[in-house]
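User: tokens in, sequence out, please.
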């Protein structure tokens, strides 16, 4: 099936009591604009229907009831309809959201092969209205969930602002109602929108819902299961991993012990090389071992880390260049004070500008938005930002993430098909074990261990790249938790835009860096654990233009330690892809390197793992 013509059925079902009149009008007014926006971001063969529960709203798209549509249009026996009939007195049937949803799920004329979606809107309980839950109302939600799972229907939920004459009795009652609307959505794979104070931006709500509606039901349910379990307090501990530091006993910690011993050996080796007999007299202060043992020279307390020079401009082609020798170590203070006044002072040694090589080549994957090259991967010059070539042609799919291995394999993910691939020398291979759930960010460590995650769930899956096999897969046994470190208040991963994490990158010390949608940057100092990582918040990158919104969706480094961010710049409703460049020591300042076609870049990657001094991260 043509992905862009994928069938999507979406039924809007609204509580027809007077308190929902504002939502009905706003949704009807914004629908056409939302569909237009959604078709740009995630085109589909969309069919929509608008039904009221035992009532309608004038001057809106909700001009027919569930009962009339099922019995008169489809010929369903009225005796099979579960939701109650309208009555002028008593608990209003117009607010029977869950039973009416069950009727639509079971009896609507869903198209063959279509993704089936139901969007329910209410401002009170899911059965009979009122602002307080009871067992009967909870069971009505359970029944709707069961029916949705049996018939593969995603239920999206919207909880609106209650009428001013009928507020929630207590804050606890409001929290319980929010939980119930979220539960109905999450357990069926749907999205949830909570607006108990104020009214939503329905263009954004509808666009997000339409795009989410394209995702296969089974994938959505699986993706949201963990969040649903947490909501209901059913969170289960991770499966034990006998290879990780969480194992009990000395044997279970053997891998960490060996790693620590090897690290200590490397440090001692570097110390001997730097300050051994052959360098007698050159280390005169309280020295610290260097970050990389193979370097020479002594680092004294209080000595600032030298900034790396900006590489000189070069030609568009990135070719292998010979390594540049490092500048000589600065003379110690004792040596400099021993110089005689009449001795000529040598001019300062100016280090040769470092040269970029093919490992610094920037590869960015396009999002299919306002453009015709969705999921294509472009190569950019790290010095000028200029496009060098199209590396991968992905036939107008929807790009989500990409990463490079040290041996040149390009891994990438199509969000519209939920499929993962890798490619080298023009040969594309699907990786079934990594396909399924969406992947917002992915990266490889220098040992070619791959990591992937979704933006709001603090779970990172890992696997090992092997060019000889496609049997990599994500599983609970290869999953770790990401949590804030001690004393950290800025949390990575969550449903709020301020918490969403979109990509990651590694340096030569195997530190992981997470970039957030709004430009927040976190670091994980130690990624050796296979069960848990601790984040530390560093800073937030600046917005690129005043009066515009910058969404950061990708991060990578070059071999000189410069950081590159990509994403989309939104101004006046129009988005354009960008690449920006900066240095971690500048704490969020960026230079716009490339501003290009409409749409956005979803991820960016290189094969570089730079040395980043610890002082830079303080």
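Assistant: Sequence out:
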């Amino acid at each position: 099936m043509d992905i862009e013509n994928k069938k999507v059925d979406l039924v809007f079902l609204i509580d027809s009591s007077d308190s929902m009149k504002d939502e009905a009008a706003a949704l009807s007014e914004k629908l056409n604009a939302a569909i237009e926006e959604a078709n740009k971001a995630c085109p589909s063969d969309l069919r929509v229907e608008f039904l009221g529960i035992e009532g309608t709203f004038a001057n809106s798209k909700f001009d027919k009831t569930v009962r009339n549509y099922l019995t008169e249009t489809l010929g369903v026996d009225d005796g099979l309809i579960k939701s109650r009939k309208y009555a002028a007195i008593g608990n209003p049937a117009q607010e029977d959201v869950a039973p009416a949803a069950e009727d639509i799920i079971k009896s609507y004329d869903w198209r063959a092969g279509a993704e089936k979606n139901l969007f329910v809107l209410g401002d009170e309980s899911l059965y009979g209205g009122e602002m307080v839950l009871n067992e009967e109302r909870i069971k009505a939600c359970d029944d709707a969930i069961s029916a949705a799972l049996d018939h593969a229907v995603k239920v999206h939920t919207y909880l609106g602002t209650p009428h001013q004459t009928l507020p929630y009795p207590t804050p606890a009652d409001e929290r319980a109602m929010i939980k119930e609307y979220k539960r109905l959505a999450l357990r069926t794979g749907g999205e949830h929108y909570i607006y108990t104070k104020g009214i939503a931006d329905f263009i954004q709500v509808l666009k997000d819902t339409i795009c989410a509606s394209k995702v296969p039901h089974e994938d959505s349910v699986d993706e949201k299961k963990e969040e649903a379990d947490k909501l209901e307090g059913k969170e289960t501990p991770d499966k034990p991993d006998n290879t990780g530091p969480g194992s009990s006993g000395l044997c279970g910690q053997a891998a960490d012990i060996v790693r620590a011993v090897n690290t200590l050996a490397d440090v001692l080796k570097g110390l001997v090389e730097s300050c051994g007999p052959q360098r007698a007299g050159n280390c005169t202060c309280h020295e610290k071992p260097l970050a990389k043992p193979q370097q020479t020279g002594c680092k004294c307390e209080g000595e600032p880390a030298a900034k790396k020079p900006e590489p000189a401009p070069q030609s568009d082609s990135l070719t292998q260049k010979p390594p540049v020798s490092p500048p000589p170590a600065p003379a110690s203070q004792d040596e400099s004070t021993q110089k005689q006044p009449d001795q000529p002072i040598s001019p300062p040694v100016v280090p040769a500008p470092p040269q970029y090589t093919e490992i610094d080549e920037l590869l960015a994957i396009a999002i299919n938005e306002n453009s015709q090259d969705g999921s294509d991967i472009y190569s950019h010059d790290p010095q000028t930002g200029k496009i060098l070539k199209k590396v991968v042609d992905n036939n107008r799919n929807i790009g989500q993430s990409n990463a490079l291995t040290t041996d040149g394999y390009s891994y990438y993910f199509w969000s519209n098909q939920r499929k993962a691939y890798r490619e080298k020398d023009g040969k594309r291979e699907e990786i079934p074990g990594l396909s399924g759930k969406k992947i917002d960010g992915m990266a490889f460590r220098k040992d070619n261990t791959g990591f992937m995650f979704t933006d709001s769930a603090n779970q990172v899956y890992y696997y090992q790249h092997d060019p000889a096999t496609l049997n990599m897969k994500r599983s609970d046994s290869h999953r770790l938790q990401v949590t804030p470190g001690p004393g950290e208040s800025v949390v990575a991963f969550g449903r709020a835009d301020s918490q969403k994490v979109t990509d990651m990158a590694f340096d030569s010390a195997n530190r992981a860096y997470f970039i957030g949608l709004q430009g927040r940057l976190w670091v994980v100092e130690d990624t050796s654990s296979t069960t848990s990582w601790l984040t530390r918040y560093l800073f937030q990158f600046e917005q690129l233009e005043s009066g515009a919104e910058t969404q950061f969706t990708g991060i990578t480094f070059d071999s000189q330690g410069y950081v590159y961010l990509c994403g989309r710049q939104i101004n006046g409703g129009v988005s354009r892809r960008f690449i920006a460049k900066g240095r971690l020591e500048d704490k969020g300042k960026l230079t716009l390197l490339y501003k290009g076609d409409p749409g956005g870049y979803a991820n960016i990657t290189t094969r570089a793992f730079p040395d980043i001094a610890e002082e830079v991260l303080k």
